[in-house]
Structures are given as C-alpha cells and as structure tokens.
Design goal:
Elements: H1 18-28, H2 36-49, E1 53-57, H3 60-70, E2 78-82, H4 88-95, E3 99-103, H5 114-120, E4 125-128, E5 152-156, E6 177-181, E7 194-198, H6 201-210, H7 232-241, H8 245-262, E8 283-286, H9 290-302, H10 327-332, E9 336-339, H11 347-360
Parallel strand pairs: 2-3, 2-4, 4-5, 5-6
Antiparallel strand pairs: 1-7, 6-7, 8-9
C-alpha cells in the first residue's frame, strides 16, 4: 500500500451538500470578489477562532503578504522569522517590501527561540513572525510585550488552523494578527485559500482593501495591493468542512499519540517536545544525522511511504544565501523527517508506518 505525505479528505460533493451551493453560485454569476459564501465563511471562522475579524484570501502565502502590508510592514523594515520554516514565510516578507532577518529555533520544540530573537531586534525591526511549525501553536506570549511597542508580533499560523479547539489556554494567540493556510495539505482545507484573523478592526479593513488590488472605497488604489480574492467554490468547501473540524483535529491528535507510543525508545529516533495539542499537519521525527535521515527516507520510499525532510532551512537557500549562522537550525534541519498524518488514518496504517521506520533505522 502507498502512503503519500498527505491524503486530503474533502466533503462529499453531492446534492444537499457543496454541489447545490456551487450550482447556485454558478447560476448567480457571483463566483469571486467577496461573494456571499466567502462572507459566510469569514463569519463562521471568526466564531470558531473567537476573533472579531476574519478576511479570507486566495492562499496562505497571500494571507501572509496581505497581513504584513496591512500591519504597515514595508520597505526599510525588518521582520524576524525562523529559518526553520517553509520558504513562503520569508518570501512573504520580501513580497511585502521588507527584509527577512533569520533567527534560530529551540532544540527541543523546534519553535522560534525568543532569546535569539532578542539578539536580532534592531531599530529597523517592525515585526516578529513566529511559525506554528507542523501545526503546533506558537506560545506568542514568549514575545508579546517584550520589545518596543513599534515591534509587533504577527503569527505565521499556516498549518495550525483548528488547533485552537483543543489547545491549552496558555498557548492561545495574543499576537496582533495571524495568517492561516487552507491548502489541500492542511487539516482544514478549502482546496486552496487562507485567511487573516485579528481583533484589530483597522488592520482587517486595510487587509480587505489590499487583497482587492489596494483599492479603497474611493475607487482609487491607495497602496500597491494584489488580487487575493477567495473563490466562492473554495468558501463552499470550507463551509462544508468546518462543522467536522473538531473531530478531525481530535483524530489527528490520536494519530500523533499513537506514533509517539510506537516510536518511543527506538534507538536512533528522537521526538521533539510538543505542547499538549496541535493540528498535526505532519509528524516530525529526528534521526541521528543527515546520512541516517536520508537512508531512512530512501528505505521508506521503497515501501511506498513518502516522508519528507521538512523543513529545509531557508537561510541557506539560493534565494537568500544569508551569512547568518543558526547553529540549532543547521544541526536539526538535516536530521528531521516528517511522517504522514491523515484525517482518516487508521491504527493499522500508523502501526505499519511506525514498523517501517523501526526497520529502516536498524
């Protein structure tokens, strides 16, 4: 049996489901530009997250760019980000006109290290953007209020939507805004899409205009924006998927616990320390070194199991070629391997993948 790194599960597209709503949208001709289903999704997502404002957009990357620009980040500014993340994180900073400053992670959690962040804050720092690595909510209380009021915390929560339903209260976000991805690889998916969530009504207002080419109600472009509208079909899929999300997250939590149990005390395999709850976009393990990681990955692939070296450190990529040294990131990234977690994964599948990992490290 083949185990891809991701196996999206979507609502059945039949009558009395998304198909009827999609058919109605097609007949109305209102399929984009903040249609009624997008507005409906924004309201239910705001209720789910417990925030005042949600702005749905076309992708998680668009959400990051729009969030940064709406928060006033632009040319001449620096944004501190982890290098241990998907490359969309620093890309969004550059696309917003600012400069990414890479910081290190903690060796036990693999999350942005607040102590290293403090060393990299300068007079040009406009924002700090932690990442919810693998869907683990970042405790942004580690950062909020520690620096000048001019330094805002904006959260790249791309893989963690849904975790708030089960996360411990001490990990609930306090950042000014956060951006989520609704990509097909995520536990909550609209096939493609994303959103900005915030209690800052002015930031949300700016975000909505920036996602519409930067055009304000006057009809004139007040800033350089982008076309980041969410399609009605994506919103329709999100509206159908959201009611079952708590069960999905609970299932992924159970899968993660099963992985941790199967892989406990396996020589050559270690597990990061995780907060109590997560949306578990993937399940990361650490091997002894890069050679061991690559060998295990190859042996799993032979058996049809796709595992990825996720994340590859961004500061060494050709797009950035940073001279910054990040010792923890550089030590961890070559060792990490992400295992699949599915929203409909069975106990037998978890056991089979875990057994294959044990055999591969021998």
């Amino acid at each position: 049996m083949r185990f891809p790194i991701s196996r999206p599960v979507f609502p059945t597209f039949g009558h009395h489901g998304p198909a009827d709503a999609f058919d109605a949208a097609l007949k109305s001709g209102n399929v984009t530009n903040n249609g009624p289903n997008v507005q409906g999704l924004e309201q239910v997502v705001a209720d789910y997250l417990g925030v005042e404002c949600v702005v749905c957009v076309s992708s998680g990357t668009a959400a990051l760019v729009v969030m940064l620009k709406a928060a006033g980040v632009g040319p001449g500014d620096e944004v501190i980000v982890p290098s241990f993340t998907f490359c969309a994180t620093p890309h969004a900073v550059v696309l917003a006109g600012a400069t990414p400053v890479f910081a290190d992670i903690q060796p036990d959690t693999l999350l942005l290290d607040p102590a290293d962040v403090a060393r990299r804050v300068t007079a040009r720092t406009r924002a700090i953007m932690p990442v919810d690595a693998y869907g683990v909510p970042y405790p942004d209380q580690w950062l909020v209020g520690r620096f000048s009021p001019d330094v805002q915390v904006l959260l790249d929560a791309a893989p963690s939507f849904g975790a708030n339903a089960v996360v411990a209260a001490e990990y609930l976000p306090t950042s000014r805004a956060r951006a989520y991805s609704f990509h097909a690889t995520k536990p909550f998916s609209t096939m493609e899409g994303g959103c900005i969530a915030t209690d800052d009504a002015e930031l949300a207002r700016r975000a909505r205009h920036i996602a519409h080419f930067g055009i304000w109600p006057s009809g004139l472009a007040q800033v350089v924006g982008l076309n980041a509208h969410m399609l009605e079909v994506s919103a329709i899929m999100g509206l159908a998927a959201l009611p079952v999300l708590r069960g999905v997250i609970a299932h992924r939590e159970a899968v993660a616990r099963a992985y941790a149990w199967h892989l406990r005390n396996v020589p050559g395999v270690s597990l990061p320390r995780r907060p109590r709850a997560s949306s578990w976009c993937y399940f990361p393990i650490l091997l002894e070194n890069k050679a061991a990681r690559d060998a295990v990955r190859h042996r799993l692939a032979v058996q049809g199991i796709e595992a990825r070296p996720y994340y590859v450190e961004c500061h060494t990529m050709p797009a950035y070629k940073s001279q910054t040294r990040l010792p923890v990131t550089e030590a961890v990234s070559p060792r990490v391997l992400a295992l699949p977690i599915y929203s409909n994964q069975t106990d037998e599948e978890v056991a089979a993948i875990s057994h294959a990992v044990k055999e591969a490290v021998r």
